[in-house]
Specification:
alpha/beta
Length: 238
């Protein structure tokens, strides 16, 4: 079960920018082919991520960063092969992490949303979550975005993705068994389905307090949205 599910559902109130194909978005976002701009009032109650597999449970938790006592959740709905997700990562992520996550102001979570238009999005997501099973989600998150232009064109991408796992000193038998078993597919699909039900149809999409914000938003805009949500969160018990 996604540990932030209740907060995630409660946070979604309205869309601040309609989801749009990349060609029509001034700040970059990639859409699914089945767009739905309606924001769901709640996330579906059916939980397809329930699992007794300790790797799946650990992976679910490992893609969450920040102080559990933080009053504000920021969730990024992302695809490792999306160029706009990489753009936001390269331009804003490190400063956001340093100023808001490391300081305990925000709890940050990564939600997988692999787009069908990206041939290697699913393998990359599985790579990240199998690394997460060994508590290496965030290092793999960094490695995947740093090398996106290398693995996105490969068919198959497996040898290159395996090399990333080796570079992080993962237990390779455990990692390759995880990938080949497909045990993370249910967790990734549940991420996708909940994000879609919540109104996210493009990557990246950010859930910041009570807003869905779409696209590779500039750091200044990210700061403004997060600071505003923090001010609102400070007025009530989370």
């Amino acid at each position: 079960m996604l540990p932030f599910r209740v907060n995630y559902a409660a946070a979604i109130v309205f869309v601040s920018l309609a989801c749009a194909p990349a060609s029509s978005s001034s700040r970059g976002a990639e859409s699914t082919s089945a767009a739905n701009n309606t924001v769901a009032a709640t996330v579906p109650k059916t939980d397809t991520t329930k699992s007794k597999d300790p790797d799946v449970v650990r992976a679910d938790l490992a893609r969450i960063a920040g102080n559990p006592a933080a009053k504000l959740w920021v969730v990024v709905v992302s695809d490792f092969q999306c160029p706009y997700c990489k753009q936001w990562h390269d331009d804003a992520y490190e400063t956001f992490r340093r100023d808001y996550v490391e300081t305990g102001k925000v709890r940050f979570a990564y939600i997988n949303y692999p787009l069908n238009s990206h041939q290697n999005a699913w393998p990359a997501a599985q790579t990240a979550m199998c690394a997460a099973a060994q508590d290496k989600f965030w290092p793999m998150h960094e490695a995947l975005f740093a090398t996106q232009q290398q693995w996105e064109i490969l068919s198959p991408p497996t040898p290159f993705l395996d090399s990333l796992a080796r570079s992080l000193n993962l237990d390779m038998k455990r990692f390759t068994d995880c990938v080949s078993s497909g045990k993370m597919r249910g967790l990734i699909q549940a991420d996708h389905d909940r994000a879609l039900a919540a109104g996210a149809t493009s990557t990246p999409t950010f859930i910041i307090g009570g807003k869905l914000v779409v696209g590779a938003i500039p750091l200044a805009e990210m700061r403004a949205a997060v600071d505003s949500a923090l001010a609102q969160a400070g007025k009530s018990t989370p």
